[in-house]
Amino acid sequence: MWKWKTAVLHRQSVFVKFVLSYLLILIIPIVIGVQQYYKTQQVLVEDAAEMNLQILRMSQGIVDRLFLEVDDVVSTLSVNNDVLSLMQNVSTSPTPEQLYNFSLLRNSLNQITITNKFFFDIYLTFKNSHSVITSKTSFDLRDNDIRIGGQPLEAWMEAVSTRGDQKQYYNLDSVRIGGAEHKLIAYVSPLPNGFQGKVQGSIVVFINQNDINGLFERLVIKNKGFAYILDTKGQMIAPTSVDGVQIGKPREETTASSSGSSFETINGSKLLVSHSRSDQNGWTYIAALPTSVVLAKADYIKRMIAVITGITLILGIVAAILMAYRNSKPLSELMDSMKEFAAREPGKRSGFYEMMQSTVSEIMNSNRMLSSRMEQQLPLIQFSMIERLMKGYYKNDADIQEALAQAKVSLQGDRFFAVSIAISLGEGYAIAPNGAKWIQDYIVMQLRDVIEDCDYLISLNGDRADMIVSLSASHEEAGAFTDRLKREWQAGKNGTLANNEIRLSIGIGRIYSHLHDVWRSHDEARQAADYDVFGGYDAIIWYEDIVQGSNFYYYPMDLELKLVHTVKNGDVEAFDHIMHQLEEHNHTERQLSASTRKQLVSELQGTLYKLLEQLQFGYATYDELNEKLEFMNHTKADMPWGAIKNALYIVCHHINDNKKQKHNKMADDMMQLVHAQYLDANFGLAGLADHFKCSESFISVQFKEYAGASFSDYVEKLRLDKACHLLRDTEKSINDIALEVGYNSDKSFRRAFKRTLGIQPTSYRDSPT
């Protein structure tokens, strides 16, 4: 009984504090409103002009980003190897291989158009073969029913693609495709990109003009105004108006500045004209609204201020009470939930804010303890991250940046290279407990003497020290920087380590422009360091100096293990990357003799057979794979490079296909189980993982990849959808519905419902359909 009275007093105290606060706040706007009454009209007109300009700038920002994305898409496609290959090699009657490449390009274009709602379609045209590839189909340029402004597509393409340096946007009010009329904006770029001679093809990005018009509708709809974009040549793009309003151009003086708003008479009507010039392409965005509309809103708001001021005193107290009740209720519930966590002395009464302060203090203390434990583990996390980076476990720069952030490591720059240092100890010499840190500081000191403004990561492990160095944009280009390093880096200037019988063999890899390629530089640096470990004190070996004219092929053991691991995982992308590295090192950079090349092919052939031997006992589909590799039985013992590469690719692709089939079946089974069990309050990710005999982290990743949402979000949505149906169609109580849809209590159900739908279950039930 005493606890119940205490809880009631706490709730009343919170409610009263809210009421008094709202009443105090209520007096302030009334006083300010009366004081500013006579300035309202001028302020509102200025605000209306500024608001229109801001909306115009928002639309401008979206369109500028769209045009920037168009440039990125065109630039990417312009250097795409498949596009350039088809442009040069495709025939009038495409071969089956070229048709297959057509389908791959269609898939790529489809991915681009799907991810951008403004993109209507992308056309790739090849002049030599009269072929056109779009995101949906491919066809002959001479045989189609597409009409642009009444012209056949072929004639229009010929007209806009006459010069290799011509890149232009076109406003197309009439485009007929498949019997349907469209209003589009076209961006045309020649192929090859930047070529000044004969145009061999074109990239055409079609943008839905109606989507651009939709960005301006907030300015002109129901206001009898208009908006459009004016390019640098005076061409009007995406004109938007309502009710047949005549579109006109303001005076040049009006749009002379970069942005602003002013009143002007156009076509006999006085308008508020807002304009903003894009810094990106120099285009001007213009919107015009009738002055009567702008002033009508201002006058209306002015009258409303007087009315509201009069009735606020009457309704203010009622509103304050209602709002106080509404806002104090969740705080009171929070207070009830926090009681068991609040640290209070026995028999001592605490107010709500004292209780909250106590609980928050406990949470902060727990958080500090957790942070302290994480800091203790941070060196291990950093070491693991650096090792994975040097071994090439990350596939792209985004994954690397995420790993760097998790390890609280900074590595800023736009070029990267690796340094590997082999440490050789003299006879009878051992590294002291603090010697590793001493050597590390010495290496960093030598590096910083030569390179300023650089970030670095260092890993010291036994007799090896590996570093990754990042260069900022302020450093020279790669060739000049390398030459300067060769001149200036004289390791061991002070002879400190040499006097202690420590020899350093320093290998330096080449400079790369992407972090995900730094493992290649690390591998090169290690090769360089191992090239002449006993060449003298503090010898510096550059990888690029030992590559040319080498009589040794490049196929280290760790790369072979990585290749086997990649193929067994079915990672086709990583496989292509490794094979490209092998070909670059052995066929481009090294001048191998015939016998050495033959030995390299033999090594790779041995890797293939070892891999097939492992798969024979580990995969149920080995017989099916063996059928795909039947050609190997008819090939000579000395298989050519291309045959071995093709065989490895077949194995990798076969395993990848099998994994996808297994994952798809597993995903279907997961979804069936979730839909069958989601109403069970005890059903969770642990139960799902236990059912499939997998870890929770693996199941979580697989589920999100298939469903597009996390497991908890997906199950919550199913439960709340079911709850909405029960709230609408039944008279069951909130508590019964909460238990029926899988919640342990009505409080947790109400919190989830409010967080997701924005209202309480009772309000949802009472709201109109």
Rg, rounded, reads 35 Å
The biggest beta sheet is recorded as:
8 strands, antiparallel
Helix percentage range: 55-70%
**Tally of helical runs:** 25
Structure keywords:
5-stranded antiparallel sheet, 8-stranded antiparallel sheet, alpha+beta, 769 residues
Write the layout of secondary structure elements.
Blueprint: H1 2-35, H2 40-78, H3 81-89, H4 96-115, E1 119-126, E2 131-133, E3 138-140, E4 147-148, E5 151-152, H5 153-160, E6 168-177, E7 180-191, E8 201-208, H6 209-220, E9 226-230, E10 236-241, E11 259-266, E12 269-277, E13 284-290, H7 291-338, H8 352-390, H9 397-406, E14 415-425, H10 435-450, E15 454-461, E16 464-471, H11 478-488, H12 496-499, E17 502-508, H13 518-531, E18 539-542, H14 543-547, H15 557-569, H16 572-589, H17 594-618, H18 622-628, H19 641-677, H20 685-691, H21 696-707, H22 711-729, H23 734-740, H24 746-757, H25 761-766
Parallel strand pairs: 17-18
Antiparallel strand pairs: 1-2, 1-8, 2-3, 4-5, 4-6, 6-7, 7-8, 9-10, 9-13, 11-12, 12-13, 14-16, 14-17, 15-16
Helix pairs in contact: 1-7, 2-6, 2-7, 8-9, 15-16, 15-17, 15-19, 16-19, 17-19, 19-21, 20-21, 23-24
